[in-house]
Design goal:
Elements: E1 9-10, E2 27-33, H1 61-79, E3 85-92, H2 100-114, E4 116-126, H3 133-142, E5 146-152, H4 156-161, H5 169-180, E6 184-191, H6 198-210, E7 215-220, H7 228-234, H8 243-259, E8 263-266, E9 269-271, H9 279-285, E10 289-293, E11 298-301, E12 304-308, H10 312-320, E13 326-330, H11 334-345, E14 352-353, H12 359-370, H13 376-380, E15 383-384, H14 388-392, H15 394-402
């Protein structure tokens, strides 16, 4: 049911923010749909199966979330003129467990409240088993532009190790449905599962490339405390991920995707063209504003971070009572904002301006070039950009730049 929320000061019951919004800062929307058919053993997202909902009904969820949309309009109207959404992202969970009409209704709520910018990217995450021609067509008709399909692997025993229940053949079906509806396609992959070999991973990459998506995300499996997989590893039932093997898997992904015409633009993300990059995720990495709707969702407005209560029942009860579902909030100080900027912006292709580094960080640049972790030519032009080796050791680069 998700990891614990961070600590912070209590959020006001009326949801007020006490901030002044910069109209030039892009505004995005995240809509969290916390429902899953089964719980994957590796996942610590704030998601719930039917037996965990305790009185919350999926068929009422869209109406509940739209109550938060109305609340956000009141709150943000105080902070300045409302900005149109440049990106909208339905994440989860499995958004496509809800009827496509419910997703369309939530999107219309965003459109009627804030407006949606011309050319906005509107993404829906989907389990391959839940995508049909009819679903894809209805999503496209509502204004959705992009489907992000949770492929994870093409190898049955790897999917089983991850507790993924979808039929691998349905990935191809889902991609075809999305293409027929005129949607852009992203495929999400995970590598380093227990029992997954380098050849298994190659098979998954080659299958993904054969489907000609516009975008590919490939994430190393991370063992999160409190998950079933973490307990299995602690009991010695399955092996922990092998760091060296995961590094080999990353290099293989970068090589095969590069040969197929995909360029990396963030450590775990590749796209055919700059226009096909995930604009919503770039907004996170570049420090834009966004409002996250739904239980456990996080938001960032004008330097203020806040997050909602976790459980769907508590979320619905707060809104039914006319209160904000906000659990807590924080306003990071300058040191925290600098660290976050280095952490996020070194991960993207455009890199981090060296002028934004503090003295010790600037002094570390020469050593990082010598170690082959950042591009020397880019550093001369005033930017910290990771090499392939640097992407494998991104955390070490961040430590060197911020110590």
């Amino acid at each position: 049911m998700g990891s614990a929320l961070p600590l912070g000061e209590p959020a006001p019951a009326d949801g007020s923010l006490d901030v002044a919004v910069d109209q030039a800062t892009p505004f995005g929307v995240y809509l969290h749909v916390p429902f899953c058919r089964v719980r994957c053993g590796y996942c610590d997202f704030n998601t719930y199966t039917a037996t965990e909902l305790r009185g919350t009904r999926q068929d009422q969820y869209a109406d509940t979330l739209l109550q938060e949309v109305a609340l956000s309009r009141r709150v943000l109207s105080v902070a300045g003129p409302l900005r149109p959404a440049r990106t909208v992202f339905f994440g989860g969970g499995t958004p496509t467990l809800l009827p496509a009409g419910d997703l369309a209704r939530m999107l219309e709520g965003i459109r009627s409240t804030f407006g949606i910018a011309v050319g906005a990217e509107i993404t829906v995450e989907a389990n391959p088993d839940t995508v049909t021609d009819e679903v894809a067509a209805e999503l496209a008709a509502s204004g959705v532009t992009r489907l992000s399909i949770g492929m994870q692997s093409a190898v049955p025993h790897v999917l089983a190790a991850l507790d993924r229940t979808h039929d691998p053949a349905n990935v191809r079906t889902a991609v075809a449905a999305a293409r027929t509806a005129g949607l852009d396609v992203s495929l999400d992959l995970i590598y380093g599962a227990p029992g997954e070999s380098l050849d298994d991973w190659r098979a998954s990459l080659e299958t993904a490339i054969s489907l000609a998506p516009d975008h590919v995300s490939a994430y190393a499996l991370i063992i999160e405390q409190g998950t079933r997989l973490a307990r299995q590893i602690s009991r010695g039932e399955v092996p922990a991920p092998d760091d060296d093997l995961q590094a080999d898997m990353y290099e293989l992904a970068d090589g095969l995707l590069g040969e197929a015409g995909y360029d990396w633009y963030e450590v775990s993300n590749w796209a055919r063209t700059p226009a096909q990059r995930s604009q919503h995720n770039l907004a996170y990495w570049q420090g834009s504003d966004w409002w996250g709707y739904g239980p456990g969702a996080h938001s960032h407005i004008a330097g203020l971070r806040f997050w909602n209560v976790k459980h769907p029942a508590a979320y619905a009860q707060r809104l039914a009572a006319g209160e904000s579902p906000g659990a807590a909030r924080e306003r990071p100080d300058q040191a925290a904002r600098t660290l976050e900027s280095v952490l996020l912006r070194t991960r993207i292709r455009e890199g981090l301006p060296t002028a934004e580094l503090l003295g010790s960080g600037r002094h570390a640049v020469a050593a990082l070039i010598a170690d082959g972790l950042i591009e020397g030519a880019e550093a001369v032009r005033g930017r910290v950009v990771l090499t392939l080796r640097g992407r494998l050791l991104a955390d070490a680069v961040v430590r060197a730049l911020t110590d």
